[in-house]
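FAQ: What does a ligand-bound record look like?

Like this one, built around guanine:
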Amino acid sequence: MNNLIDGKAIAAKIHEETAAKVRELISQNIQPAVAFVRVGEDPASKVYVGMKEKMAAKLGIKSILHILPTETTEEDLLKLIYQLNQDASVHGILVQAPLPAHIRQEKIFETVLPSKDVDGFHPTNVGKLMLGDTDGFIPCTPGGIHELLIRSNINTQGAHVVILGRGNIVGKPMASILIQKSPHANSTVTICHSHTQNIKEICRSADILIAAIGVAEFVKADMVKPGAVVIDVGVNRIEDSSAPRGYRLVGDVDFNAVQPIAGKITPNPGGVGPMTIALLMKNTVRAAQLSLNQN
Ligand code: GUN
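The answer part, i.e. the structure of the complex:
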């Protein structure tokens, strides 16, 4: 049974659309450019930023990587953001999370100019999303999941969507997207978290179940209604002495157990991950287009 939602293929389609827009901008003498900022040596962040750099290059988007040491002060990081905000040749700014504990992440995100905030983390963009104002930027992972649902012809109108996880990067913005009064949303959304009671029963009532809690293989077969759509956002390292690096990556969904009963399900890897990058590139090109209107 092939019930897989092919995130790689859908992302590739979005990249084609993005590359066409890049060519159009370059023909107008605009070189779309994004600045990546990484603080410290978090191994996962290194991998993610590396993948983003590679994809930007492939699409003709210029990227500038700033790597700062772990000890960087909040003040010095803010100075870099001010510089990038002022640099007219930089259209998008992405500060990779998580940041070291001594830096206030919210302070950094609210300093990035909303018009360059391709992550959609600035309070202005968060507010616009909640208000249904489509002028802002939408965070890349929930934006990518929304595109997966749309392009897989999954009906969200009137659907009960259960989101596991209430984080600012996935859970909350995902809910904001799907509660909007719009043909590709109009969902009834429940957010579950660590204090939720009867989580299994709530999950079982979901038409669409989105797992973003960061607990390895949390979603088991008895938590899924037969035929439901299951989206796995998780990337969890679990120890595995037989794996070359001593660990392997698993999602928030027990894939082997859940796939046979799901109507549709994202593989992991190859589901949500590629979509996050696709949305980031799309947002960057949009930021470059918007900069044209500002001149
Ligand atoms: N860390 C995990 N996901 C993200 C993301 O979408 N953007 C940034 N900047 N950091 C992240």
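Follow-up question: can I read anything off the structure? Yes, for example: Residues 94-97, 119, 140-141, 169, 276 surround guanine (CB under 6 Å).
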